[in-house]
């Protein structure tokens, strides 16, 4: 039986040219990581750590203070949790329909069909982890028109083939490739301006509330019966010291463990490994395994597994 694949936090390989805003002031210092699946990167420079299909994609964004990710949308659900730092998430055509500040461990489920962005408002380098529904992550990113216009002013053009071309490197659109067309005003009407009470009340859960509910058994955070009642094509649960068990179990499809707090001991038939916050573990289907805290103190991890639900659209519909 194949052993789990572990991607260590310290071994993550960043890409600084993953998206169209890579040269835009205010966004040009962000680092993007593709951990599981092909992701939605527009750059051939993006390294993919695990290519095995899981039914979802997992990535991450690392940003210094005051660095933001530009307004975009996806065709499948996008879930973020904060690994390090303090982050402001905002949404709407111009990013002013609403916002929420999340701390370490907090999670947000962002529906399809709205423009969203995020900014590190902490005092140090921060990291957020992202789960996108579907193996193809919805076929790419849909950018707010002003993002594409701003990028062109700084040398980056997105082709209608979904690939980036950098005039600073002497690149131009190949023959037969046209610039990605901007969304028209009529098309933009399909991207609603959701009020804060809808997004926050429905799609945000705070770390300490989840910990309280996961004191004895794991809590389903996102799922058909979860704290966030959504069916984005995957289910997210939270385990703590009190709800972890040494009893081995297995799944009929690959699953993912993402430690958030504390150190964990993962065991399986014939092996063991020790995990730290920021590590990502892909456990193969059918492999009996167990994960328990290995040291005293606070301990929590997220567990992600695909479901048979469509990867999108999300709860908005």
UniProtKB/TrEMBL annotation:
Recorded GO MF terms: isomerase activity; metal ion binding
Domain Cupin type-2: 65-128
Recorded superkingdom: Bacteria
Keyword Translocase in record: no
Keyword vocabulary terms for this entry: Isomerase, Metal-binding
Pfam family, one: Cupin_2
Name assigned to this protein: Putative mannose-6-phosphate isomerase
Organism of provenance: Jannaschia rubra
